[in-house]
Design a protein that fits this description.
Layout (H helix, E strand, L loop, with lengths): L1 H18 L13 E11 L3 E2 L5 E4 L2 E13 L2 E19 L3 E22 L6 E17 L4 E9 L2 E9 L2 E13 L12 E2 L1 E14 L1
Antiparallel strand pairs: 1-4, 1-12, 2-3, 2-11, 3-5, 4-5, 5-6, 6-7, 7-8, 7-9, 8-10, 9-10, 10-12
Length: about 210
């Protein structure tokens, strides 16, 4: 699923790169860059319970934004926030199979370093790679289940950015937020165990340099 989304996203950027080949991507300019983003999120298994029950979120959409501040040549400081809502999903429930409850939400905050690698003179596309760390906050607000928790998250990412002309650029980025959900508080008494889980986000954004 994600391979298909990534291929489609990169293909969408290709015409933009051709149309604006006269605007090559160069090293970071001394400006702050703001990028609102839309995202598709895929959630890993956060918890397991008695009888092999798995707890997670259904895949869904989110939105957020990123700010980048140039530090040196092609190296920037980046910080971002991402929010998504979904259904809380219970998999492999005995005699039922799958049960979903609404009211689940997720916030991801991270900051770190991003490197930009231009593909060559006259080429308006550059590779970007970044390493960030931050926090993941998930919450469930449903008549049957209520709760929230915050966990540390590590978020490597990679993608492409293409200059559109002037102060605008477009980017496609894939990030993998890795977090440990070991803290389950009172739920441990009922056989619930937290796991290390991946939350993968495919982000598409339109950036502007200020």
């Amino acid at each position: 699923m994600f391979r298909n989304l990534l291929v489609v996203s990169l293909a969408a950027c290709a015409p933009l790169a051709t149309a604006h080949s006269q605007n090559p991507v160069t090293a970071q300019s001394p400006t702050i860059e703001l990028t609102p983003t839309a995202a598709y999120l895929a959630f890993g298994t956060y918890f397991t319970g008695p009888g092999g029950i798995q707890f997670s979120n259904e895949d869904g959409f989110g939105y957020g934004g990123q700010v980048a501040i140039p530090l040196w040549k092609t190296l920037s400081l980046v910080a971002s926030a991402l929010h998504g809502t979904s259904n809380w999903s219970f998999e492999e429930v005995p005699l039922v199979g799958r049960v979903t409850l609404n009211g689940a939400s997720l916030w991801l905050f991270d900051a770190g370093l991003r490197a930009t690698l231009p593909l060559g003179a006259g080429v308006p596309v550059a590779l970007v790679g970044q390493v960030t760390a931050g926090a993941i906050r998930y919450a469930v607000d449903n008549p049957l289940i209520r709760g929230q928790a915050i966990n540390f998250a590590f978020g490597p990412g990679a993608g492409l950015v293409t200059r559109l002309g002037g102060r605008l650029n477009a980017q496609v980025l894939v990030k993998d937020y890795v977090a440990s959900f070991r803290s389950v508080d009172d739920a441990a008494a009922f056989g619930v165990e937290g796991r290390r889980a991946h939350t993968v986000a495919v982000l598409i954004g339109l950036g502007i340099s200020l």
